[in-house]
Amino acid sequence: MGALPKCYHALTFFVYAFGLYFDHYKLNIPASSSSYRMTHQITGGRWKYLTYIDLVLQCSFFGLCVLNDLLGSETVVANKRSFLQKLRDFLLSTLVVPLGVFIPLIFWGLYAVDRELIFPVSLDAWFPGG
Prior knowledge:
It holds the Pfam family Far-17a_AIG1. By secondary structure, the protein is an all-alpha fold. 67% of the residues lie in helices and 0% in strands.
């Protein structure tokens, strides 16, 4: 495998890892600005959001890709594939692609129907729309 896919895996992993880091340690929404902070801390915290679960899954998957690039194999011969390659391929086909497609479709579909269900206007100050 060439250097470009390895660089892509590493870069994507670091982007997702930075997103998780920023969400946990740098993003502080005052409780007075919206009900987001209050509901965010109730049962489940961030883990109750499917988008957050997908973020962790994508970060873990690309971390696994980096590990496979460094320690695993990259072959199409079934009996010569390493455990890391088998795990990576299995996760890609069973979780990463299905959730990676399903979540944006549902998110933007609900957003188009009723924005307040997904992203209240009160959060625009913290997450500007562009």
